[in-house]
Every structure is written in structure tokens, then in C-alpha cells.
Amino acid sequence: MKSLDETVEAVMRTLGLDDAAVVRRKAFLEFTDDDVARLRTLHAALQDLAPDFVDAFYTHLLAFEETRALLPHAQTLERLKRTQAAYFDNLTAGDYGPDYILHRLRVGAAHQRAGLAPAWYLGGYSKYLAGLFPELWQRLGKDPEAFVATCQALIKIVLLDMGLAIDTYIQADRQTILTLKEYADIVFASIPDGLLVLSPDLTVLSANRAFLERLGLTEEAVRGRYLMEVLAADGLRGRALEVLATGVAQHDVLFSMGPAGSDERKPVRVTLTGIRLAEEEEEEEEARLLLIVEDLTEEQALRAAALESERRFRDLAETAHDGIIMTDPQGKIAYFNRAAERMFGYRRNQALQRSIGTVLPEPLSCQLDEGLQHTPVWETQGRRQDGTFFMVEGSSSVFEGSAGRFITYVLRDLTERKQFERQLIHLANHDPLTHLPNRKFFQDRLGISLDEAALNEEQLAVLFLDLDRFKLINDTFGHALGDKLLLMVAERLAGCFRKGDMLARLGGDEFVVLLRGLSGKQDATLVAQKIMDGFAHAFQLEAHEAFVSASIGIAFYPSDAIDADNLIRCADSAMYQAKEQGLGYQFYRLDLENLSSERLTLENSLRRALERDELRLYYQPKVDLASGAVIGLEALLRWAHPVRGMIPPDQFVPLAEETGLIVPIGEWVLRTACLQIKAWQGEGMPLLPVAVNLSARQFRQPSASGETEGRPLSDEAAGVHDLVETIERVLGETGVDPSCLELEITESILMQNLSTAANILQALSAKGMRIFIDDFGTGYSSLSYLKRLPIDTIKIDKSFVGDITTDQDDAAIVAAIIAMAHSLRLKVVAEGVETQEQFDFLLERGCDAMQGYFYSKPLPAEEILPLLRSTRNSSSGRD
Ligand SMILES: Nc1nc2c(ncn2[C@@H]2O[C@H](COP(=O)(O)O[C@H]3[C@@H](O)[C@H](n4cnc5c(=O)[nH]c(N)nc54)O[C@@H]3COP(=O)(O)O)[C@@H](O)[C@H]2O)c(=O)[nH]1
């Protein structure tokens, strides 16, 4: 709102109330200087009257409700009284210049603003004049002319004031009207719908901004023009005339509307309504037509977009791989896509309006929780139309619409995934070849069974089963047949157990069995025996019949171990013992395990002994009995163990044979002995042959065992096969003449496969090597086979020699061996000669040579040459 001063200024400006105008107003009122003088005179006379006069004035005002309402507070009343006193004072003060005028306008404006209607305001002046006239008469009644003239002056100045007050009232009202009009114009212009006011002859009287902008028109182009010259809209004119004629409004009439003369059209919705305005008081009310024009372009675009979006959603939902179901607030199916049809077996029209529980029978959190908008992915059961159940994975979203709660379910059939998961679990727990439980599954199940056994105070047993010679079969017949054998074994084993027992394959040719609810060892024995019996029959591997045996180790809970790992380990250890001893099955024994563990440690060390250069060769001279000359040396193996010291061969050679390590070790012996021969030759030592020992494993050729029969060989087998080649190669590489190398083999080696041994010995002998039969007398003691072999010498075992002087039997045996050997033109060497008596006995019986501590213990290579030199210098032989 404007300030009072601004209002007064506006009044003065509007009325053009400058000094000249005031002068003219005064002139019109014939307000003269004489009037001014008379009022000044009056002023002096009325000085004491002001307080009572003002009080009386306000008492009058307070007597009327309309004026009293404007004086609500005592403070306001006091302030007004002071203003009134000033007014009273100024009225007759005689100064009626610009300040007076300004003051009078302010008073008028203030009363107008306070809400005092003009009638009451003018009534106030009446009270003034009516109150003053008696006072004037009292003071000037004696001079009627002066009285009348003063009254006239007073009336003139009061009327001047009243004129000014009325001007402020009129001006303020006019300002209000202008403000309202301005406001109306703004509102009219800013209404978002188009507004068009037409006269009864359809001339455009006004159009708001929205209308003009929507149709691309200007106010000048439309105002005062005939509607149809401005607008093109079929049927609009007729509708407008109807409304004018009937006075009945028409709502929401749709048109396609555009500027006349253009092809542009917009979809619009129009409301046509008649209005009546009286522009001037004296004019008759004139009919007007108001068109409210709503532009539907955006709305239609939005609707089209919504339809498009809905169509796309439907397309998407219909082509989705996942089932999509929507339920209404009553939980009834309101939408059911094609994937849902496939998943549940219902046609859409069969599913609609059924409860969601028809297809998802278990209550879901999204159905129960009021506040839930989105639930994470869950799994639940789905029910097909045929009543079968399956697992579904789903998620849901909740939409709170005006009609209630709608839930959308997105569902995926988990049947395949669950099947896949089951397959994965099966694969993780089963052996892929035999489909038996694997180690992990077995261990888990064993753990559970152990807990149960502990609770029920029961015994259980683990059988560890390993096929004998499976590697050989695998290498010989190939992996495909090896696999087939494992399958057949698994099948046979499966028939040996009760329900509740468990058979598993740990890998390779290892199987384990869990036996539960045992009454004692005898139960496990029965099962082990049953397994052994099962292996008694051959396995038919295509064209081959294979006899396969198994070694079984048995460990018991709680006597051997109380946890799964240890129980399996004990059974494994027992199996190892069974295999070693060729027992078929063996119960776990701690002492045997300790032995095994030592053996294992030794085996591991022996494997590294070659790499670490821990092997040594000692040499023991062979002495001609008659001359006492050294006629050769035997190379004897030692293991210089870093912790255990010098280990004799009988403590590790059998192990090396078992593990196959004897093959590389044997080659090392050959090479070392040959290199030593060369070294001695270089040192000027007389040419002495050196004998090396060959083990059965080295000596065995593939065909000798009859196991491979021309089929592919394992590396190990190939190494054995190459004995002749190896010896030749080493001789070639070291440059040693074959005549310097002697080979010692035992009778038992020969007897394992005589014909093959004969072939090998022939080949070696043909190269110039001499062959010795070692430990003669301990084996077959048959000289007949010697005729068929290229043997040069036999060595009588030291077990006979040791007692020849005390035991007549041994003496007789030795004498007989010497005699028979000679009859076969074989030389004889006696081993283990320790005494002069033995020496003499042998010399007397015609034995060719001897070897033993009597002459020398086996010595390191570096001690041999000094030994030879010292004996050459001393007398021949030992007496
Ligand atoms: N395959 C291989 N076997 C080998 C090799 N080196 C040795 N051996 C065999 O180990 C067995 C034990 O040999 P060793 O402990 O060396 O014993 C030999 C001599 O030390 C011992 N001997 C010799 N004279 C006496 C004696 O007067 N008294 C006595 N108590 N013992 C004596 O006899 C063993 C000789 O063995 P051998 O002539 O071979 O029969 C043994 O069987 C060796 O064959 C190897 O490199 N490979």
C-alpha cells in the first residue's frame, strides 16, 4: 500500500492542485482577505474554547457505532484529539497557504484510509459549524454584520476543507478501481488457458496472452475483428451463437483450432459462456461471450506417450523370459504375461481374477508387510495348473494406487538351475568316473558317522583298498581299459556291503569303505574276505582277462583313531603293510606303521642321495689262492648318509629295488666303477677287472616277467629293458674295455626267467664281459642250468665258507661245489674268507680264488693302489 504522503502527492498530481488551482478554488468560494482577517480575529477570540470543543466533538463521534468502531483504543483517541486540536487551531489561524492545503489533504486521506465513510466525515464538519455558530453569536451578536461576515468566512474555509477531503476520497476510490483493474488485467493475462471475450456480434473485445501466444496472434490482429476472420475452427461460430441465444453455457467442446488463413491446427477444448457487464451506470447491461480455450496439444502428446509407454511395457512384458504377474488390491491376478502362461500352464484368461495363491501358494513378505515397497529376491514354490510344484525365484514391487495396493511379481523358473545346482553338488561330492562318493564326501559322511558312533557308543571301521599292480595294467593296456577296470572293480565292491555302509573312490586305484554298526573285528574281517573273494575272478577287459588283486588296510573307531583324517590314515598305513607283506588284508598296527614311516623316510632320503652325491663305491680285492696275486676287485656300494653315517647296501638296496631306484643307482655304480678303472689305469695300476653287482630289478627285462607282451612300456619298464644297452653305453662313454668289467648276478635272478637271463648274459658275454654267479649255494644250488649260460665263475656264499673248518657239512658242500664247478670248467671264488684255516682249506680243495677280510675288507678307491703296491712288495699270498 502507498504511504499517506504518496497518496496525497498522487491526489495533487491527478487533480493538478497547484497554487494556481488553490487560488481558483478560493476565488470560486469568494474567500477573500477580509475573510482571512475575520477568521484571524475569531481565532484570538476562540483560543480558550479548543479543549472543550474537541472533547464535545469526540463525545459526539463515540455516540455513533459507525464512528466509534474507528476509535477502538484510548491511545488512538488521545492522538486524534491532539490532531483535532491542531486542526481547530489551524482553521481560524489565517494561514491558508500550500501547507494548509497539504495538511487538509492528509487529514482527508487518513480518514479515507481509516475507513470513515464520506457521510460521517462530512457529518463531522456539520458538528463543527453547528458548535461554532452559537459561540460566534455570543461573541459577535452585538454586531450582526460582523457576525454574518465571520460566519460566511468560516463556512467558506470549512467548505474549502470539505472539497479537499472529498477530493482525496474520490481520488483514493479511483486509485482502488485502477489497481483492481490492473490486477484483473494481470490475472486475465496470466491465466494459462486462452480467454477470449466477444461481443454479441462475435467481435473480439479482448484476448489474453495465453490465447494469443497459443495461436501465434497479436492483440492488434484480433481486437475489434470478427471472430471468424481471426480464427478457423469448424462449428465454433454455431456454438457461440447458440450460447448467446440461449444463455446456456457449453462446456468441453472439442475443436481443431488455428489462425484463420493458416493450415495450422491445434486440438482445443472450449467452454463457451455468456457474461453481462454494465460499463457505465446509465448504460444497459450488454451481453458478452467468454470463450475459455484449453490447448490439448500437450495433454494429447502426454496421453499418446502414456499409451505408447503402456504398449511398450506390454510388448516387453509379453516377450519377457520371466513370468510377470500383477495382482489387484484384492490379491486377484490382474495381469499374467506369456512367460507366466508357460511357467504355470494356465492360459491368461484362466489365470485372471484367480487369487495369487493359486500359483504361489506360500505367503510372501510383499503380501504381508504393509510398508514394503520392494522386496529383495526370494525363492518360493510355484504351483502349476497340473498341481505339480517347482521352485521359482521372484522379486516384487508394490504400487500404492488410489484404488489400493497393486503388486507386480517377476518370476523365474528355477527348475533347470536347481537341477544344475544338484549336478554341481553331485560333481563336487562324487568321482566322475565311477560316480562313487569322492574323498570329500566320504570324509564329511565319516565325520557325521563318527559323531553318531560316539553318541551311541558304537564301533565303526574304515577299509582302505588299493589295487595291486594297477599302474602296470594302466600302462600296459592303456588308460581306457584302466578306467574300465576301475568301473568293474567299483561294481564288484558295491556288492560287498550292507545298506548304510559307504564305498568311495579316493582317486587312482584307491577305494575306501565305511562299515557301521560293527559288533567286532570279525565283521570287518568278513567284509575284507568277501572283497578278496570278489577279486578271485578275472576281469574281462575286452579281449584280455586280467586277474587283479587288492590290498586292504582296516582301521577301527575308537581303538585306532577317533577322527576321520586319522582313521583314514591308519587304514592307509595298514593297507601299505598288507601290500608289502602280500597279505591281502591287514588290521592297523602302530608298530608296523612306525616301521613304514622309517622306511618312508629312508626312501625319500635315498631318492635324493644320487642328486646329493652321497653314494660311494668300496672295492674288495679277489685274490688267486695259489699265487696270492690280486686278480680282480669287487665294487661294493655304500651310502654316506649325512646323519646316519655309512649305510651298508643290505639296508638300502632292497628298498632301492622295490622302488625302482636301483635302476638309476645301478647305472651310477657301473659308470663310477668304469671311471675308476680308467683312473687306475691312468695311475699305472696293473689291469684288474672290476666286478659290479646287478640286482634282479635291473636285470629283469620286460619279456622276462611276461607282463607287457609287446605293449607300450612304462618308463621304468623301458629302463629295465635297456640293461644291455646301458652297460654298452657306459663302457663306450668311459672308454673301458668290456674285458675289464665283470658282472655278478645271483642264482635267484637267473631263476626268475632263465631264458631271458640267458639272452642277456649271452649278449654281455659276447661283448667280452665275464659273468659271476654270486651267493652260490643259497638258491637252487643246481649246476645243470649253468651249462646253458655263459658263466665264467661261481662265488661260494660266505655262509658256507665261515664254517668250513668247523662244520663238516659246510666243508663237504664247499668241496663238492668246487669239484662240480671245475667239472663244468667254471672257476670258483670263495667269499668271506677270514682266516688262515679257511684259506688253507680252500687252497687244498683246489678253489681258484678267494675274497675276504683275510686279505682285505672292502676299501675306498684311493686305498686300493697302496694296498696293491704293499702286497706286491711283500710275499705273495698270506701265510
Ligand atoms: N645290486 C647291488 N648289490 C650290491 C652292490 N654292492 C653291494 N651289493 C650287495 O649288497 C650286499 C652286502 O654287501 P656288503 O655289505 O658290501 O658286503 C660285502 C662284503 O663287504 C662282505 N664281505 C667280504 N669279505 C667278507 C668277510 O671276510 N667277512 C664278512 N662277514 N663279510 C665279508 O660280503 C659282501 C660281498 O658281497 P657279494 O660278493 O656281492 O656277495 C651283498 O649281497 C652285495 O652283493 C651294488 O652295487 N649293487
What does this protein structure show overall?
- It is rod-shaped, with a radius of gyration of 67 Å.
- Strands 19-20-22-23-24-25-26-27 form an eight-stranded mixed β-barrel, surrounded by five helices.
- The longest helix is centred in the first third of the chain and has 47 residues, at 144-190.
- It folds into five domains: 4-181, Orthogonal Bundle (Globin-like); 191-295, PAS domain (Beta-Lactamase); 316-418, 2-Layer Sandwich (Beta-Lactamase), CATH 3.30.450; 430-588, Alpha-Beta Plaits (2-Layer Sandwich); 614-878, EAL domain (TIM Barrel), CATH 3.20.20.450.
- A hairpin with a 2-residue loop joins β13 (502-507) and β14.
- It has 879 residues and is of the alpha+beta class.
- It has 36 helices and 28 strands.
- The chain binds ligand LFPHGCPZ.
- Ligand LFPHGCPZ binds at residues 620, 634, 636-637, 648-650, 653, 669, 692-693, 695, 744, 774-775, 795, 798, 831-834, 851-853, 858.
Could you give the topology of this structure?
Layout: H1 4-15, H2 19-28, H3 33-45, H4 50-62, H5 65-68, H6 74-91, H7 98-114, H8 118-140, H9 144-190, E1 194-198, E2 204-207, H10 209-215, H11 219-222, H12 227-230, E3 231-232, H13 236-246, E4 250-259, E5 266-277, E6 286-295, H14 297-319, E7 323-327, E8 333-336, H15 338-344, H16 348-351, H17 365-368, E9 374-383, E10 389-401, E11 404-413, H18 415-429, H19 439-456, E12 459-467, H20 470-477, H21 479-494, E13 502-507, E14 510-518, H22 521-534, E15 539-541, E16 544-546, E17 550-557, H23 564-581, E18 585-587, H24 590-611, E19 615-624, E20 630-641, E21 645-647, H25 653-659, H26 662-682, E22 690-693, H27 696-699, H28 702-705, H29 715-721, H30 723-734, E23 741-746, H31 747-752, H32 754-766, E24 770-776, E25 793-796, H33 798-801, H34 808-823, E26 827-830, H35 836-844, E27 849-850, E28 859-860, H36 861-873
Parallel strand pairs: 17-18, 20-22, 22-23, 23-24, 24-25, 25-26, 26-27
Antiparallel strand pairs: 1-2, 1-6, 3-4, 4-5, 5-6, 7-8, 7-11, 9-10, 10-11, 12-14, 12-17, 13-14, 15-16, 19-20, 19-27, 19-28, 20-21
This protein binds ligand LFPHGCPZ.
